């Protein structure tokens, strides 16, 4: 674990070097290559680590639904704001978007552009991104789960994404009662993990070309859609734009 944490530190240093305009104290590509034999023999590696680095602080990334089991004294909703600076801990950079499927005669593919999300404390959210999944009525995944990259910018009460999600199944092949879920996630410095703040979903009868706004619900994400609670009384929404592709 210590070795992996040190490797994580080296990756953060390399990432910082790539983004920096300063040339001194860079963590070079040649340095990074020295980690390859360590990774290949991670279970048996017992030599001294080649770089004098401190292990990166533990930053827990939770699996979908995992944060439901944590104590969640959410300070987000009633007046509290997230403390800490985004510089304290290097960010996880999500972004697992998949390309559009090949077209099939008579079949429809859906592209959803996630434009923006409205939140009253938008400016306080660190490394915000959205996890998109397609679930059946029992909450079972019907397609691979995708993460957007971290949001482009924050502006007033909006976080802007402007990113296209290619739904990984032809619409005609989705089971009756399926829904597309959007989980808004952000990093919490105090707790050192990435948490779901709220979620939204779109049902099959809402799939039509053009703009759509959908309501935000309180976590934990209820994939079965049984006990839904709006995030707030304020009118806050996820803004999407749908494009249908049919052969």
UniProtKB/TrEMBL annotation:
Compositionally biased residues, Acidic residues: 69-79
Parts forming coiled coils: none
Single GO biological process annotation from the record: determination of ventral identity
UniProt-listed SUPFAM superfamilies: Domain from hypothetical 2610208m17rik protein
Pfam families from the UniProt entry: Aida_C2, Aida_N
Domain C2 Aida-type: 98-245
A GO term, aspect molecular function: phosphatidylinositol binding
GO cellular component annotations of the record: membrane
Residues covered by region (Disordered): 69-92
Keywords, ordered alphabetically: Developmental protein
UniProt similarity note: Belongs to the AIDA family.
Function description: Acts as a ventralizing factor during embryogenesis. Inhibits axin-mediated JNK activation by binding axin and disrupting axin homodimerization. This in turn antagonizes a Wnt/beta-catenin-independent dorsalization pathway activated by AXIN/JNK-signaling.
Protein name (record): Axin interactor, dorsalization-associated protein
Lineage: Eukaryota, Metazoa, Chordata, Craniata, Vertebrata
